[in-house]
User: Fold these one by one.
Assistant:
Number 1:
Amino acid sequence: GTAFDKPSAFVQHNPQHRSTTALSAAAAATASSDAIQSTRGGGATGFDIPLLIYFTLWYVGNYYYNISNKLALKATGGAAGFPMTISALQLGIGSLYGIFLWLAPDARTKPKVTMDDIIKMLPVAFCYAGAHSASVFSFSAGSVSFGQIVKASEPAFAAVLSQFVYNKPVSKAKWLCLPIVIGGVILASVNELDFAVSALVSACIANMFAAIRGNENKKLMETEGLKDRIGSVGNQFCITSILGFLLSIPFVLVKEGSRFGEFAEAFKTVPALRSNMIASALWFYGYNELSTMTLKKTNAVTQSVANTAKRVIVIIGVALVLGESLDFMKLLGCGIGVGGVFLYSIIDSIVKPKAAST
């Protein structure tokens, strides 16, 4: 479509610049991650400057990932192109960057995990790869803003899983927030110009994988001594990325393996694919590691505000840059859905004190 001509032209105009920017941003992200880890535990610093820089880089990384990812998908024909190959290679390129940090002198201490630890990490890695691939497919089939609005409803999936699969009851107050979230998504879908059932279904599958991953990760981190053997959040994310990439390969071969020659040719001859795929991989790796570290250093309410603000910035910012529709119904649905998610995140801390005081 013509809406994508301008961004593509910009990226093709200077593909090297975009990739270099992404690489330096990912490097800055990781440096900042290590700096924050070293300041951890000094309670006196509270809301320090590195953390503020960290939040900014997380938002910027997420924003640029969404743009470069969509442009890479567009360059190969969207949903009919190579979404599975691109999503797997994004994990692979990110993993290489993580491995480089282990090998570089004084960059990051290597983990001391055993084969048994790796096997225990496989379910989390599988869900991580599944959530990523399904998200990429959703963004290839429809608009990024629509995919992001659906993905904002992840707490609804997490609530159902917690209640019925993991036997961790969810409060009535939280259940009452879910119709607001789902209503917002429905409203946003009504006039969506790029609406595709496959985009909606894929984003829902991504939510399911992400919710399972969250629960499995909690269980995994309760394994005795595992945290010490992994060593840091950065190491955990790198191991998950490597395993996720390896687990993605069979799916790539089944779905798009027969056309791999076509993809290789496009990678060589289409600058928009090459530069945006490398950039999106590095942005993805950088912002995910940043978000994990940032959320670990903040309380639950701050996390909720941060995630809510991030979604609004990404949904509106990306739609403006990529020329996607932003009509009143879509914005209203987005506002209601994201507001419902925020309410869901903080409702227990609002309701409980009242219950205690009566």
Number 2:
Amino acid sequence: MMYQRNQSLLVLGLLAGASAFSTPRAAHTRSSVQQTWSQTSSKLSMSKATDDEATSDENTAEHESYSLDLSRTIYTSSMKSPKDAYIAFAEKGAANCKLPKRKIFHQSVLGGCYVGFGGLLSLCVAGNIPGIAGRNPGLQKMAFAALFPVNLLLIATTGGQLFTGNSATAAAARYEGLVDNREVLRNWAISLLGNVVGCSLMAAAAWYSGCLVGGAADLTMKTAVGKVGATFGKNFVKAILCNWMVSIAVFLSGASNDLVGKLVGVWFPISTFVAIGLEHSVANLFIMPAAMLLKANLTWGNIMFRNVIPVLLGNAVAGAFVVAASYSYQFGRLGGNTPAEKLEKYEQKTVASKIEVTSRLPAH
């Protein structure tokens, strides 16, 4: 465009210079040249404005083609918008549900093992700082809470599955019509079974290898006994609050596109529920067997009816309703929004916009 404009200006300049040496008879020619100059300048200005407008429209269309964010908020390449993060959250649940049974089980066993690693790390460190724990119990809690989130980071970055996270992601997939009820229940049952196996294996390995000794053993037994000391109702409520944070950690991990963002997104919500002392069903599946192997003052009846059952129910309520249903109402079908239909509308609008912009450009 700039090259053509310079060419036009050069030709008009030469014509104007020649007309300056012409006879009075050429006055009409000079007038024509001036008129041509005016018309050409006007066309060039309009063409430049059209080009600028086309660039703006194309940028807008490009943003709309990859984002469902109606507010037109521009996010960095390392972070999805909240709407897009919810769509990824539901799609993660659908992908987990669609896997073959053996692969769901395999990923869930690994997930249980990673929870065991996080729990063992926290117990070994926090359980062996008795001086700090005696003077300031809050620091012992903080040490435990700061280390435990390593488990979810391992799970989020390797494709592992936990019942707690699946209770939210699979439910979101169901709300968006990506899976049916049978697939959701199948995923929950298999992932829970795999978590039981993984956590139990890690508890047995930690006990047999001698990792749970001294302060780590004392803290394991103290924690397990305290977990069955609360009533059914209190543990149920603690479990709701716990999996609220866990599900948000999964949401934030999916919203980030890089490892550092996933670490930050996981660390804060997980350390929050651990430091407060809330109830995580899968973590308890590691601590309870470990405490039983250490001969803690527990019975399987107390473990099941005063902890495992109320905590599983509370975790499921938090994942399926507090988080998944809440964000489906905000961004998905429960609120009358269908992401797939919105995406199709955006794509149609983008194509129409580009056609309109192209039609306004001057012919060359």
